[in-house]
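Fill-in record for Beta-xylanase.
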Amino acid sequence: MINKQYILGLLTVLLFASCSNDEKVVFINADEDGGTGSPNPITQTLKEKAKFKVGAAVKMKDLQGEANYKNAVIKHYNQITAEFEMKMASIWSSSTAYNFTAADYLVGFAKDNNMKVHGHTLVWYDSFPEWFKNAKYDSIAFESKVKIYITDVVGRYKGRVKSWDVVNEVFADGGALRNETVIKPIFNDPIGFYGRCFKYAKAADPEAKLFYNDYSVVLDGGKRAAIKKMVTRFKANGIPIDGVGDQFHYATDTNRQTMKTGFTDMASTGLLIHISELDIKVNTAKSDSYVFTDAEAQKQAETYKYITTMYEELPQTQKFAISTWGVTDKYTWLTGFWHSKEYPLLLDADYNKKPAYQGFLDGLK
């Protein structure tokens, strides 16, 4: 009998030989061996192996519009984050009306499939609706409106959305308060305002876990110091913050020692740690001629393994979840934001498990 692995190996060779520079690698054997060199085939899903929640950012239109997408979410993950549908601009349609259609759908989908929901995000400078910004509220009216919004939204999903990013991306690179035009110009003490937002969320759902979320937390020492200073202030003043999310939009060439040092420093807060928007870029030079080769897939797999291994070193009491920012390369936000030739996630455009999937698994205990 001809050896099955021999045939699969031959097919792989033929496949690579036929690839032009404009074609991507297809992982034809991904369900058996993710390609990281691991002696163990992929026999478990992410949610089966991890002892913490493994989440993904999802969109209602993709869950409703494509069965393969929906099935992949159900198969691999046990927590979801709304990519857009729970942001203020999506829900707060006017001063007198909310639109909960999409958010309700996602919360219902999670319930039907025994998943948790992480709410993203209550207060973010970039998601205030235009009607709100155009109203030109003073600080008192501004905060009164935001308090009502937080109370209504968190209260609506009390007991169903188990955690929230209460505040998102307050600090600029380097650690100064972000010089945005929505919140900072109105409040003499923006950090005090953000702290009160945590209190409003806690009052609406005392059992929900409440997070601050930002990007480049483990790489940017100045930003991390500012976050830690804010956390210290919150704790000293009884502000109910439970955790910090680092988005982890990183790349195969991200310095691992810097990542590890920053991660350890952030964990020193003692708070829950959420890797909240994980994806790993491979086309780091933004090259139009980039080809996602087997060697590139291996580098990506090793990066995912490094991150999950690092996360597993946290005390169990600080492990909240690792969430990928998307499900499949087919719909990654990075093809619009970064480069059209980008493949940052665990499943390829055809929903095959990439070597990155095995890398993620290999880092888990």
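KEY FINDING: The domain at 4-362 is CATH 3.20.20.80 (TIM Barrel).
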